Amino acid sequence: MAQLHAEVDRVLQGRLPAVADLQALTFTERIVTEAMRLYPPAWIVGRRAIAEFPIGEYVAPPRTIMRS
Fold this sequence. Notes:
The chain is an alpha+beta fold. It has a domain at 2-38. The protein has 2 helices and 4 strands; from the N terminus they run H-H-E-E-E-E. The strands form 2 sheets. A two-stranded antiparallel ribbon has the order 1-4. A two-stranded antiparallel sheet has the order 2-3. 0% of the residues are buried.
């Protein structure tokens, strides 16, 4: 955590980040990427059926939200 704070303080110098800062925030990027790998934002993905969708002996009607 200290290394993350040090990089952010060194690169941003108290201002909000800009797109141009991304190249210099390499350690921060690695931390965020690993956090997204461990804790993805969408643990379930839903889709809406566009037509009747058979599921075994059941049929989901059109516009049903299907989760996987």
